[in-house]
Design a protein that fits this description.
The protein contains eight helices and 17 strands. The protein is of the alpha+beta class. It has two domains: 115 residues, D-amino Acid Aminotransferase, Chain A, domain 1; 158 residues, D-amino Acid Aminotransferase, Chain A, domain 2 (Alpha-Beta Barrel). Strands 8, 9, 10, 11, 12, 13, 14, 15 and 16 form a nine-stranded mixed β-sheet that branches. Strands 1, 2, 3, 4, 5, 6, 7 and 17 form an eight-stranded antiparallel β-sheet that branches. Bound molecules: pyridoxal-5'-phosphate. Pyridoxal-5'-phosphate binds next to helix 6 and strand 14.
C-alpha cells in the first residue's frame, strides 16, 4: 500500500503526488513547514507545531488558506489515512503557483498545502547507544539580521551545506556557529551542553525555538537541573561533561564526539541518558489522540 498524501485539497498516492514546477515553494523555497511525530496513536505537541507553522507563515506574509483547527484535523487525518500509530508528519505550506518572477503577488491561486505522513523514521539508527559524532561546519548559520531563525522556511540550503560537510567526514551531524563564532545549533536540531549538573543551550536569537528544546528544558527543570540560556563557544562544547542535540526527528540525541574530541567519557552521559528516557516516557504517554474514542 502506497502512502497517501494531502496535496491541495486531495488525498493522492505518493507516486501521483505532484506540485506545479511554477510553485514558488519549488522555485524559491518560498514557504514554511513543520516536522511532527506521532507515538503510540497520539501526535506529540500538535498544538505547538500548528502554532509555529502559523507564526512562520505570518512572518513571511503568507496567507494561510485554512484555520488552525482545520490544519490540526488534516494532520490527524493524514495519520488515519496512512494507518499511522507511530510516525512522522510533514505539513508544508508554499506560496503557491506563480510565474518565474519572485513577486509573491504573482501567486494568485493562493498557498498550496501539502501533508506528508510516513510510518516511521529513525534518524540516527544505532548512534543513540554509542553517541553521535559531530563536526563543526565552516558554514555559519544565516544571521538573524538576514533571516529570522524562528521562521521554519522551506529554504534549508544553509543547513544542507553544513550537512554536506558532516557527510564528507562520515560524521552524524554538523554543529553550526553564528557569525560571532558562538554555537548556534546543529543542522536540524538544537544543542545543549551539560556541566556539573547544569544544562546550557544558546538563546533562540540565533537558532530555531525548538519544541523538543522547550520540552527538554521543562523536563530538566522538573528534575532539579539548572538550565541556562546563554551564548557559549566551541571551547565550552569540547570541554563539556556531556553534550546532546534535540529535535522532533532526532529526539534527544547524545553526542559522543565533537571535532574528533571525546565529550566527557566519549559516550552518552548520565544526565543525557536520564533526559532521553524522560523524553521517551513523555512522548509515549501524551499527545493528541489520532482516533477519536
Ligand atoms: C534548524 C532546526 N533547528 C532545530 C530544530 C528542532 O526543532 P523541534 O524540536 O521543534 O523539532 C529543527 C527541526 O525542526 C530545525 O530544523
Amino acid at each position: 500500500m502506497e502512502n497517501l498524501f494531502y496535496v491541495k485539497g486531495d488525498w493522492v498516492p505518493q507516486s501521483q503526488a505532484k506540485v506545479s514546477i511554477l510553485d514558488h515553494g519549488f522555485l524559491y523555497g518560498d514557504g514554511v513547514f513543520e516536522g511532527i511525530r506521532a507515538y503510540n496513536g497520539r501526535v506529540f505537541k500538535l498544538e505547538k507545531h500548528v502554532d509555529r507553522l502559523f507564526l512562520s507563515a505570518k512572518a513571511i506574509d503568507l496567507q494561510m488558506p485554512m484555520s488552525k483547527a482545520e490544519m490540526t484535523e488534516l494532520i490527524l487525518e493524514a495519520c488515519r489515512r496512512n494507518n499511522i500509530e507511530t510516525g512522522y508528519i510533514r505539513p508544508l505550506v508554499t506560496r503557491g503557483e506563480g510565474d518565474l518572477g519572485l513577486d509573491p503577488r504573482k501567486c494568485k491561486k493562493g498557498a498550496s498545502v501539502i501533508i506528508i505522513a510516513v510510518p516511521q523514521l529513525s534518524l540516527y539508527g544505532d548512534a543513540y547507544e554509542r553517541g553521535l559524532s559531530v563536526i563543526t561546519a565552516s558554514h555559519r548559520r544565516v544571521p538573524p539580521q538576514s533571516l529570522s531563525p524562528s521562521i521554519k522556511s522551506l529554504n534549508y540550503l544553509n543547513n544542507v551545506l553544513a550537512r554536506i560537510e558532516a557527510n564528507a567526514t562520515n560524521a552524524d551531524e554538523a554543529l553550526m556557529l553564528d557569525l560571532q563564532g558562538f554555537v548556534s545549533e546543529a543542522s536540524a536540531d538544537n544543542l545543549f551542553i551539560v556541566n556539573k549538573k547544569a544544562l546550557t543551550t544558546p538563546p533562540t536569537s540565533t537558532n530555531l525555538p525548538g519544541i523538543t528544546r522547550e520540552t527538554v528544558i521543562e523536563l530538566a527543570t522538573q528534575r532539579g537541573y539548572q538550565v541556562r540560556e546563554q551564548f557559549f563557544s566551541l571551547f565550552d562544547v569540547w570541554t563539556a561533561d556531556e553534550c546532546f542535540i534535540t529535535g522532533t526527528a532526532a529526539e534527544v540525541g547524545p553526542v559522543a564526539k565533537v571535532d574528533g574530541r571525546p565529550i566527557g567519557e566519549g559516550k552518552p552521559g548520565p544526565i543525557t541518558k536520564e533526559l532521553m528516557k524522560a523524553y521517551r516516557d513523555l512522548v509515549m504517554s501524551t499527545g493528541t489522540p489520532i482516533r477519536k474514542k
